[in-house]
From TrEMBL:
Keywords: Membrane, Transmembrane, Transmembrane helix. The keyword DNA-binding does not apply. The chain crosses the membrane at residues 96-121. This is Uncharacterized protein. It comes from Bifidobacterium goeldii. It comes from the Bacteria. Residues 7-25, 59-74 have a biased composition (Polar residues). The keyword Transmembrane applies. Residues 1-79, 139-193 are annotated as: Disordered. Residues 48-58, 162-183 have a biased composition (Basic and acidic residues).
Length: 312
């Protein structure tokens, strides 16, 4: 340690003896070291972009004049080199900083616009998806309604076919009944022409039956003078006294069974109360029907109709 300090002191004394000027100027401001005193630092060869940047900086430095900017005062005699170095330093970095800021702003804008675009398009896509789903649901419902309508249409068509068939059957039956009525009229006309009774349901005979003290029946036999078969026949009659006055209301002698053309049927009525002897039964109307063929005819008896006076 002592030897090194001695050598350093000797070197400093030798420097004073050589007569070199002091680096401390009279003004008290340290002077800039000479180029020969600056440490030699190896400098790498600049790249093309760095060389362009240095040239641009040099041109800016050369165009600057002391006192031209209101913010920069003219350099003093001893500090001009330092101002030049500071100016060059900032001039070299301003374009780079501006470029970095521009890129950062562009990235921020891109990210923001991208987020907004994604949010807008994403929301729009969700809306369209929901609308599409709603449309599909509506189409499915419409299809189902159409199928139901088709089923109803098919059912109505089937019912219409049945009604059409039933109408045809009724029309055919009506034609058949019309034909039978014409036959009945023809038979009645033929009977009148031959001197026979013109009554389609003719009175043939009367009889009385008393099965017990409380049972009194009047039987009236009739003949079918038509060409139609009936399954029911009835005779309406009244009771008259010796003076020809009607006693009570109408009476009905009825029977069911097969009454073929030219055949006879025994109709009867049971009295619920005792009928005085001496009253006369006078037929007034007749009727016959066929429940299967829906055939029905009726008529009135004339003054020459057969009558009967009760005996019991």
């Amino acid at each position: 340690m002592d030897d090194g300090a001695a050598q350093q002191k000797s070197s400093m004394n030798n420097g004073d003896d050589s007569g070199t000027s002091s680096t401390e100027p009279a003004t008290g401001v340290p002077a800039e070291p000479m180029p020969s005193d600056r440490p030699q630092v190896p400098v790498a060869s600049p790249t093309r972009s760095e060389d362009w940047l240095h040239r641009s900086t040099d041109s800016v430095e050369q165009s600057w004049e002391p006192g031209s900017s209101p913010n920069v005062s003219a350099p003093s005699a001893g500090g001009g080199q330092e101002v030049s170095v500071v100016t060059r330093f900032f001039a070299m970095r301003v374009p780079v900083v501006a470029l970095i800021i521009t890129i950062a702003v562009a990235l921020i804008l891109c990210v923001g616009v991208g987020s907004i675009s994604y949010s807008w398009f994403g929301g729009r896509a969700d809306t369209l998806s929901r609308q599409l789903q709603d449309t599909k649901s509506q189409l499915a419902a419409a299809k189902q309604e159409n199928e139901k309508a088709g089923d109803k249409t098919g059912s109505l068509a089937s019912q219409n076919d049945k009604l059409t068939k039933a109408n045809k059957d009724l029309s055919a039956k009506n034609d058949e009944l019309t034909k039978e009525n014409e036959q009945l009229k023809s038979a009645s006309s033929a009977a009148s022409a031959s001197g026979q009774s013109s009554d389609m349901i003719q009175i043939v005979s009367f009889s009385e039956q008393r099965q017990s003290a409380d049972s009194h029946e009047l039987h009236i036999t009739v003949r079918n003078n038509t060409q139609v078969t009936f399954d029911q026949a009835s005779v309406t009659y009244v009771l008259r006294d010796a003076s020809g006055n009607q006693v009570g209301g109408n009476h009905y002698s009825v029977e069911t069974g097969i009454l073929a053309p030219g055949g006879t049927m025994d109709t009867y009525e049971m009295y619920v109360s005792d009928v005085p002897a001496g009253l006369t039964a006078v037929p007034t109307q007749w009727s016959a029907s066929n429940t299967q063929n829906k055939t029905y005819i009726n008529g009135q008896y004339g003054s020459g109709v057969m009558t009967y006076t009760l005996q019991k």
